[in-house]
Amino acid sequence: MDFLNLLARLATLDTEAPATAAPRRAALSRLGQVGTALLPALLAALPAPALAGTKETRTRLDVLKLALKLELLENEFYSRALGLTPGGPTNPAAFFVTTANRAAIQTIQSHEAQHVALFTRLITDAGSPLDAVPNFDFTGSKNGTQPALYPDVYTNLDTFLKVAQLLEDAGVRAYKGQVEFIQTDNYTLEAALRTHSTEARHAAHIRTMRRQRGANVKSWVSPADAPITTAGTVPDAVYSTESNTTQYIVRNSVITKVPFDSSLPINVGTPPLSAAAILAKVAEAFDEPVEAATAEALLQLFTY
Amino acid sequence: MSDSVSTSFLGRTLRRRSFLRVAGATAASSALVLAGCGDDTPTPVVNTTSSLVFANSDLGVLNFAYLLEQLEAAFYQKVVDNFPSDFTAEDKAACIDLRDHEVIHREFLKYALASNAYDVSLSTPLIFNFSSFTLTTRAGVYAAARTLEDVGVAAYNGAGKLLTDPAYLKLLAKLASVEARHAAFVREQVQPGSFAASDVITATGPLAGLDTVKTPAEVAVLIAPFVPVPLVTDGLMTLS
């Protein structure tokens, strides 16, 4: 199976590699013009190309602990909004404007609390002590030690729903990034997949709620969504690779790029879509994973 | 590479036996030819006019997913071909998105399966039967979509542990959460607040908070009304 695993790894290599390699090459070709004195600074500023050797490897316990951190964060985020724990809106009953909004958040919060219980149990059953629960600050100011990213998260429902979308979309991507590390444990794998699709339902509904309030956003992650993050920031990592339209598969034993941009008969509308528009649909049709480090960086924004 | 598609000796024997059992009189002669050809690569799905037999391998699982995506794509195509009169512009745009996603999933899996796709040598594709649905009203379309999307989510949740190749697991997970987004959306159109209701998310017990999971055999029963041939999932059911 080693050779197969290698192929599988190659097939799932970070598909951003060509994109990140290209600016490096371009920069190196410019070196002749700027002189070698700038070399270290120039190279340091460039993203390192993703290589097979940099792929993360994680244990079942690593996976469970990341899952618990995500669920603790989400549970506390919604619990504060609902007034179940301190630190939320001054008047939680009025914050959600409609009873339907509030009921939806109650449904989601109850699932997050159940996920906390599940992953707590699995970690404890594995004989591991639980990590200390961090403090949370959903304005992103780390208890006032840095400028707040979302100062009105509990006074403005639209900001709250933006942060909710960010956390739910991130959760979907984080679980997806972890499934390969628990593949040999059927119970944990199935529990993670079932959590993953629950989070995807939450994410879709938060997006539906935002759209009902006038936001330009689909229930699935789309390049057509109005951005809710700023390029280059930590939150943007939740969306920066989600527009990927390149998938690789092992086909007849050969690693092959799926030809969405050429021969696949996917453009079936009348009239057909433009090349860009059909690729946007391809981006929507695949949710992409993120590695644990990306999920951890996002968690760090809201904890201290 | 034959390891990726082949199975244990026992598994292969079971597959062939189940094939012979279900192949039916009309296909008996070709069945004997296939079973006796001695090819090292097992056929992932045996298709006859009388049944679809899914093999106990990753390719059997992928073919099962392929069938589900074909079913969903055909459903939304039917909706798009003849929108209900009470559909809004937003409904139409959403169903075109859903149709496009499912067509993309279908063609993606077909491309991945290549010569192993169950219908590669079929003279005419399967014609799915949606006559049990009411597709002339908005409510009917979304109720039907809810049924199909919830089955899809449950099927993907059940398929994960059947796969051997981690690359396939990752790829199916990329599709699974999109299906869950679809399910949440269409459920909301049927009944506001039902995006993750207790009929799909386990409400109590040690697995509370988890979405639905179904085995291939359970899924086969649920989609049987729409598929024109019996589905034989015995091989998939031996996987774990």
Automatic annotation (TrEMBL), chain A:
Source organism, top-level taxon: Bacteria
Stored Pfam families: Ferritin_2
InterPro entries: Ferritin-like_SF
SUPFAM superfamilies, alphabetized: Ferritin-like
Descriptive protein name: Ferritin-like domain-containing protein
Automatic annotation (TrEMBL), chain B:
Keyword annotations from UniProtKB, A to Z: Signal
Transmembrane segments: none
Signal peptide: 1-35
Keyword Signal part of the UniProt annotation: yes
Family annotation (InterPro entries): Ferritin-like_SF, TAT_signal
One Pfam short name: Ferritin_2
Name of the protein in question: Ferritin-like domain-containing protein
UniProt organism field: Hymenobacter perfusus
